[in-house]
Amino acid sequence: RHVNSTYPGFTSRLFNLFPMSQIEMQTCLLIKMRASTTEIANTLNKSTSAISSMRSRLYGKVFHDKKGAKEWDDFILSL
After folding, report:
1. What pLDDT is attached to residue 60?
2. With a threshold of 0.70, does the pTM exceed it?
C-alpha cells in the first residue's frame, strides 16, 4: 500500500510485465523502496546471492537479455 500511495499504479505495471511469484513481487516492491540487497534478503529470509540471482533472472524474463541485477534495479526504479 505504501509503494502504491507513493508511486500510483506501480504494482499494476509490474503485473502487466509477466506473471510474478509473490517473492518476486515483494523483491520488486522492496527495490522500489530503495532497500539494499542485504535488507531485501533479511526481510525475505533469503541469501543475498539468491536475491541477486532473482533480480538478474527477472531482467532476463522481461527483456530477453542477459544483464545483471543492477539493470533490473534501474528498470524498477524508473517505473
Report:
1. 94
2. yes
